[in-house]
């Protein structure tokens, strides 16, 4: 049974992992940051069925490592003592003389100890999240699910894929229109030149040259409108939607951490209630509460961003689809006046006269 509310402790964990002893747990947590989990992501034998995204999820868990501006060499690994810390800022080997350590050495050891704690906490968190992720994928663990929010997120991802397809087609259309304009311009120049050199066909070449120049002018106007349409779609897809999906990724990572610490607390709650276990239980309860607050906050942020994104998408696309329809209809109807009015209505400025190619192409 899954905890679909996200509040309190779940009571429907299908399979509970036996609680290890205190010594065994400390040994596992001490090696958490260095453990490796073999994942087959190349489609060969050994890959889990219907689990193509497992490797990506594991990588997402691992990328949130600590950012240390300065590092120290720790001898003996996580099980070593603080006396094995060697600052890397000096190129000299540590002296083994009996000279007492100075204040500078104490400060260096304090900094190295803080960094060691940061790495250890990150390793424990990574271990818990990886364990929770694998438990969910193997069907042995429960996960918190907000059905309505999950449906909206999946709909957003599908919408983004469709808008990316529209964006790609729009860019192809602008490229074809630009090639057509270049051809019409060259054809008009050729007709104009032949009208001067062929007196018997001067009139025929002349009005064909004027027709190509008019088509070229209208085509430039249409090109400006289509480029404005493509630019707006690009902003909507690569900035607005992408920003919302970044918040969604943070929400999904917070959900995984929340479920990992929830499962850990549930397992500890089933163990003996001696003095040492009570201390660990209180610490697990505090960690669980902190991650639940983070999860609830990000869930609210995602819901708000999805709502604003939908409103903004409708507003932007209403304007852009009206522009695209009016511009294309006026162009193929040969209505130059309506085409120019469409650009004025949406405040679109064309390239200055005499430019060799449209300004939109120079910006690409």
TrEMBL record:
Gene Ontology biological process terms from the UniProt entry: intracellular protein transport; regulation of Arp2/3 complex-mediated actin nucleation
Highest taxon of the lineage: Eukaryota
GO MF term list: phosphatidylinositol-4-phosphate binding; protein domain specific binding
Entry GO CC: cytosol; trans-Golgi network membrane
InterPro entries found in the cross-reference section: AH/BAR_dom_sf, AH_dom, Arfaptin_fam
Locations listed in the record: Golgi apparatus, trans-Golgi network membrane
Keyword Transcription regulation found: no
Matches recorded under SUPFAM superfamilies: BAR/IMD domain-like
Entry keyword Phosphoprotein: yes
Record SMART domains: Arfaptin
Protein name: Arfaptin-2 isoform X1
